[in-house]
Write a structure and sequence with these properties.
15 helices, alpha+beta, 15 strands
């Protein structure tokens, strides 16, 4: 893979795009000098494969046009000064030598610090350069479109360039995945990978260990429409997400132990399948045999594994799941193995492009949504309502995208029905509610696969 400098786009000063020009002017009035370069990293929509990246399974996202854009000037002092074009996000400054990331309050600047710290630690930078940075974001926050990961990725690339280092896109994605955990989100790597590896015009099948991305050509007769439920979820501030990560880890341990594997070494549901050398259908059968649908208490889990509660807490449970008393293992494992199979099927249909491809892909999206709602329990009433509305007005498939519990839906709509679809969804979901109506402009839009992270330098 080429080093990252291959992705620098030289822009001629005389015709900076309007958004960059505006950002440059704001930067000058804020810091008194001009930025030396700009970095952008896109948000993403996941078409299928929800909550399975952290279990080791492939996912199928595409980058969207909305992004995080940062103007940067490296400075002699060892201070990072961060400002945001949106006045709701307050200025922040800190010494580059003493990065403190506060997990209790997931504020915007902490995501920047994750990316900064990830690059500093990777290179062991003893004398990192200070920076003035002005950020402009167009991804709706807490919407399930990866605004937070785009910010971590953008900050990682900013830090890389400011310190004169290079890395491949894959290395950058892996560093940013690890460094986002500084804020307490136990993510699996999809968001960071697509932010760096995306290419215009194609979705990507992203596989892990080792990280790789394969083009997935979407059918030409359909548009993908994002609709925001306008219910916000901040993953780092809530426990739902990390509880699911832990339920999958516990299911991994119990399935491994029942099959006589070295369960202490097994972390992800994918590991069990790999070790047993069986297919996903077979894994679903094993889940039925081994796990029961009733929730497991911590006592029962300890008994199954032959460990004490103290060992469970110190060796298996994460910091923010110490006080959870029951875990649903059967439902979570069933979702993961069935969803992993749907991703591969989706990719296969896109490759083979049968005449009824759109119909088949829509069915997979609908099955995915039912599994997210029933088995993974990561939907909410507003998302359920929005999916119903989308299907009612002509979507062939519709599902939640991102972590869930709020955020966005993604729907596949025949291109010839797109305009009436948008009009009807606007009327049925957004115009019935004052708060949603205010957000509607950025909440409902068709999207095409966009390009990944870039550095812009004025020529």
């Amino acid at each position: 893979l080429p080093a990252f400098y291959a992705n620098i786009v030289l822009l001629n000063v005389s015709n900076l795009p309007f958004r960059l020009q505006k950002l440059k002017e704001m930067f000058i009035s804020k810091f008194g000098s001009a930025p030396k370069f700009y970095v952008r990293a896109p948000g993403r929509v996941n078409l299928i494969g929800e909550h399975i990246d952290y279990c080791g399974y492939a996912v199928l996202p595409m980058a969207i046009e909305q992004d995080i854009l940062i103007a940067v000037e490296p400075v002699e002092t060892q201070v990072v000064q961060l400002a945001n074009t949106n006045s709701l996000y307050l200025d922040f400054s800190t010494s580059v030598n003493n990065i403190q990331i506060n997990k209790t309050k997931p504020q915007w600047h902490n995501y920047f610090l994750c990316g900064l710290k990830g690059i500093q630690e990777h290179f062991g930078l003893n004398n990192p350069t200070g920076m003035n940075c002005l950020l402009d974001g167009t991804i709706p926050p807490s919407s399930g479109l990866s605004s937070s990961s785009a910010l971590v990725c953008c900050a990682g690339l900013v830090t890389l360039r400011a310190n004169g280092k290079t890395l491949s896109k894959v290395e950058l994605a892996e560093i940013c995945t690890k460094s986002e955990r500084y804020i307490g989100t136990e993510g699996g790597g999809m968001d960071q990978s697509i932010s760096f590896l995306a290419e215009e015009g194609t979705a990507k099948l992203i596989e892990f260990s080792p990280l790789r991305a394969t083009d997935v050509r979407l059918p030409s007769g359909a548009a993908f429409v994002i609709a925001n439920s306008c219910v916000e979820l901040n993953k780092a501030a809530t426990s739902h997400y990390n509880i699911r990560v832990m339920e999958c880890r516990l299911a991994t341990k119990l399935l491994s132990k029942s099959k006589g594997l070295d369960w202490k070494k097994m972390l992800r549901l994918h590991d069990v399948q790999t070790k047993l050398g069986v297919g996903l259908e077979e894994m679903l059968t094993i889940v039925e045999e081994v796990l029961h649908p009733e929730p497991y208490s911590t006592e029962e889990i300890c008994k199954c594994l032959g460990i004490s509660l103290e060992e469970l807490r110190s060796q298996i449970l994460s910091q923010n799941t110490q006080d959870v008393s029951t875990f649903k293992l059967y439902q979570r494992a069933k979702h993961v193995y069935s969803e992993a199979a749907r991703v591969l099927e989706f990719k296969k249909i896109c490759s083979e492009a049968p005449a009824n491809a759109i119909q088949l892909l829509g069915e997979l999206m609908n099955q995915s949504y039912i599994s997210c709602r029933e088995m993974y329990e990561c939907s909410c009433p507003e998302l359920d309502r929005l999916v119903d509305i989308c299907l009612q007005f002509g979507a062939i498939g519709s599902r939640l995208t991102g972590a869930g519990w709020g955020g966005c839906t993604v729907s596949m709509v025949p291109t010839d029905k797109l305009n009436t679809f948008l009009k009807n969804v606007r009327k049925a979901y957004y115009q019935t509610d004052v708060q949603r109506l205010a957000l509607e402009k950025n909440s409902l839009f068709a999207t095409k696969p966009g390009r990944g992270a870039l550095v812009f330098v004025e020529a």
